[in-house]
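Open question from group meeting: does this chain pack into something compact, or does most of it stay loose? Before anyone orders reagents, we agreed to write out a predicted structure and look at it together. Recording both the input and the output here so the notebook holds the full record.
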Amino acid sequence: MQLSLTAWSFPACTLEECASISKALGINALDVGLHYRSGLSRAEILSDPRAVADKIRALNIKVPNYYHQFGDGIVAQNLSLAANLPQNIKDIDAVLTFADAAEIATVFILPGVINPGQSREQAAQQSATSITALLEVASHHRARLCVEPHVQSWAESPALVQRLVDATGIGLALDYSHFACLGYRQDEIDPLAKHALHVHLRQAKMGHLQAKFAQGTLNFPAMFATLRDAGYKGHLALEAVHQDYMNTLTEDVLTETILMRDCFQNWKG
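Structure tokens returned:
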């Protein structure tokens, strides 16, 4: 296992500046996405994926993961509406073409939300149908598609996520904080580790998606060992953030990033 840094952790920084921060911290890997000043252009990825891949390669840093949203925000073009599927199938082919050209190993998407008039069960069933279709497209690419279960999606419990994995075979961008803030114990989340294709690291506690390192409840040495024992050999993305989502505006992102980096390095020895 090795570390990476999420570009969206530093919303005021350019992509090049985020890459430089990662190098300065000795991390030397950077996850990229669509948000903030470092964000890639969704329109450019869909229209000319190889040109955007050229920009990624010019960073001269390993990019292990790309976070793709089909629309603006978690609701637009989400996977739990059947009407979105034809466009999402078309889009994901371009997205994975970009990832392959940029030598990005994994792409993560969101599972969808409970839309107006839907039940959680209906949202889950449509999401599984959508993911199955998207995985068929992904089977023709090198980059591996995975999904991040998150707060405010339909997939807010380890049991629901496990059911989705069983139904579709999708891998996970696993972030313990999304479950911890809803009150799930770490040992209840641990069985999902064997499905991880990418991992996010952020301290959290019940009621708080993000907490200061010394004030959260997640036991990271135990988490690292669980992932290792599950056979995980990928990147652990440092994802302290400064954003409006779930009131994650109060931490010193750089300090939290360094504390998490040091925690992993001390555990790894």
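Observations to bring back to the group:
The mean pLDDT is 97.
The chain has ten helices and eight strands.
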